[in-house]
Structures are given as structure tokens and as C-alpha cells.
Amino acid sequence: MKHSMIKxxxxxxxxxxxxxxxxxxxxxxxxDCGFWVKNQNTKPLxxxxxxxxxxxxxxxxxxxxxxxxPKNDPMSQITDTQVNLWMDKYCRDEPLSNIQAGANILxxxxxxxxxK
Length: 116
Known about the structure:
The protein has one domain. 14% of the residues are buried.
């Protein structure tokens, strides 16, 4: 019984930890471009930077899962490195914008290229 309670405690703690990292980043879902530009090319990445990039990839994947068809999969033509480079440029050019707006524009651009 005691071992079962310890296992349950470990499982609960491991499920809770990602939310601690997310809570460190303000405005979940609308990370600003200033944060993106300021924190690029730093080694090692901070927890906040990892959360932002993970959120971005997840957001793009979510858009793709809802909007793409097997014959038209815009995300199949881009890598995570290319996403990062595109977002670097977008945020340098649009410092008052946010990551979500950039992700939407990137996805639209990929759709246009895929349809050509």
C-alpha cells in the first residue's frame, strides 16, 4: 500500500512539473516578439525559451492537424530550424507583434507555397 502511494505521488509530480515551467512564462499563447529576439542564440536555452519554442511547434502542429489534408500538408515542407529562422526574421521585422501572429502568417505562407 505504501509503495503504491509513493508511485502515485511520483506520477502526479511528473505530470505537474511541465506546468511549473509554463507558469514561468507570462501571457501563455501570446509570447511577444521582443522576448523571442532577445533570447535567440543563447546557450543553454532557459526553461522559458524551451516552453516558447515547444508552444510554437505545438501550435503549428495543431493548425496543421485541423487545416491540412493528406494531399496538402504545409508542415511537411519545413524543419524546426527553418521555423526558428523564419520566426527570427519575422520578430526582428515586427518587434511589436507576437509569436502566435507570426505562426499564423508562417502557416499561411506555407499553404500558399504548397498550392503552387
